[in-house]
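Quick one, tokens below. Sequence please?
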């Protein structure tokens, strides 16, 4: 019986993706079980990202090739219900193998610590442009949950796909499985796998320093604590024409997790700069314009900790990066933090220099009209989730 086969290119792409997906999933499970301080976890994390990007590119290639070269028709006599479900299963596979790497990309782009993605330590891949979104913590958590769920769901579909293929081959005996086999196609897939392994050795064979290790990719397993503007406050005080004025932000959120192991603790906050309010409409509109906060281009300010040190009873020194008006600066925040059951309270105060962030351009660069130093303080009432 004549068999209508896929092209060699389609076969090579099929087996290349299939042979990458399974070990990629196993790698993810191994990563989840490793200690945060294990340097192997960082290497696996970087390799996992690299192969994920490769799968995404391979899926794009396969989709383009499918448009150029339509798949062969199914055998004559195959039941209509079987053809329908075969088509649905293939479309679902395509969808999942796009969403899985994209959700991983979202996770990397919204993680609390900025870890660059460099495919096989060769090709840099930028983060998705999500840094200016206020609810990054929520996006990260949802993307992480989706990524994990879709992996196990895809594994279930793979098992179903394999079972259906074996049923066709050995029960129905319609030789359907031969459609996706050719010597040239399989050899092409094995060559692609060999190249992928060789490139992967650049990561696994490299030297990982302690700084490159898990503080950058830690997975927090202890409870998270959240605060929002509705029950907390973020205020500031400045000097204008020699007179003090105060203001606050009406929209912000904070996410804190501080435990005995400070290497797994963090402080994160996002602030909607357009929500600034000083009680003076004219001043507020000026603060929002391009010379000051430039809220049209930079609607979000962000803080993410890089190191937390205990300095006394319920007192911590939080070192981190403050991103404001497109500029990142390292600041050290003295912070009081205390938990009480399912609630927690945090307070801090710091003095910033507006010039460090380019706040106040043009005629406002001079300190004659507005002082350089701005006092900032917050009170956060957090709840456990």
């Amino acid at each position: 019986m004549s068999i209508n086969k896929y092209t060699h290119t389609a076969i090579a792409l099929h087996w290349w993706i299939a042979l990458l997906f399974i070990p990629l999933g196993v790698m993810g499970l191994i990563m989840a079980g490793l200690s945060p301080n294990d340097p192997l976890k960082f290497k696996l994390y970087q390799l996992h990202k690299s192969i994920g990007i490769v799968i995404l590119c391979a899926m794009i290639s396969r989709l383009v090739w499918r448009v150029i070269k339509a798949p062969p028709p199914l055998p004559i006599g195959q039941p209509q219900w079987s053809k329908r479900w075969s088509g649905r299963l293939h479309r679902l596979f395509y969808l999942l193998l796009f969403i899985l790497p994209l959700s991983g990309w979202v996770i990397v782009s919204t993680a609390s610590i900025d870890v660059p993605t460099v495919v096989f330590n060769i090709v840099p891949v930028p983060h998705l442009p999500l840094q200016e979104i206020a609810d990054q913590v929520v996006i990260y958590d949802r993307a992480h949950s989706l990524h994990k769920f879709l992996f196990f769901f895809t594994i279930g579909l793979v098992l179903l796909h394999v079972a259906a293929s074996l049923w066709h081959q050995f029960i129905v005996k319609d030789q359907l499985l031969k459609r996706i086999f050719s010597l040239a196609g399989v050899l092409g897939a094995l060559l692609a796998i060999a190249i992928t392994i060789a490139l992967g050795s650049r990561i696994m064979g490299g030297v990982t320093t302690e700084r490159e290790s898990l503080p950058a990719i830690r997975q927090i397993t202890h409870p998270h604590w959240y605060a929002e503007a509705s029950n907390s406050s973020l205020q500031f005080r400045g000097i204008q024409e020699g007179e003090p004025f105060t203001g606050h932000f009406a929209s912000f959120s904070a996410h804190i997790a501080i435990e005995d192991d400070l290497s797994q603790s963090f402080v994160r906050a996002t602030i909607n700069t357009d929500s600034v309010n000083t009680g003076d409409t004219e001043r507020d509109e000026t603060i929002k314009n391009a010379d000051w906060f430039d809220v049209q281009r930079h609607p979000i300010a962000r803080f993410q900790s890089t190191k937390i040190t205990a300095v006394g009873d319920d007192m911590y020194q939080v070192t981190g990066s403050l991103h404001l008006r497109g500029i990142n600066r390292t600041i050290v925040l003295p912070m009081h933090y205390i938990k009480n059951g399912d609630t927690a309270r945090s307070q801090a105060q710091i003095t910033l220099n507006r010039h460090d962030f380019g706040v106040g351009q043009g005629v406002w660069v001079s300190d004659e009209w507005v002082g350089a130093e701005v006092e900032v303080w917050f009170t956060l009432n957090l709840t456990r989730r």
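Confidence is low (pLDDT under 50) at residues 207-221. The longest helix spans residues 136-172.
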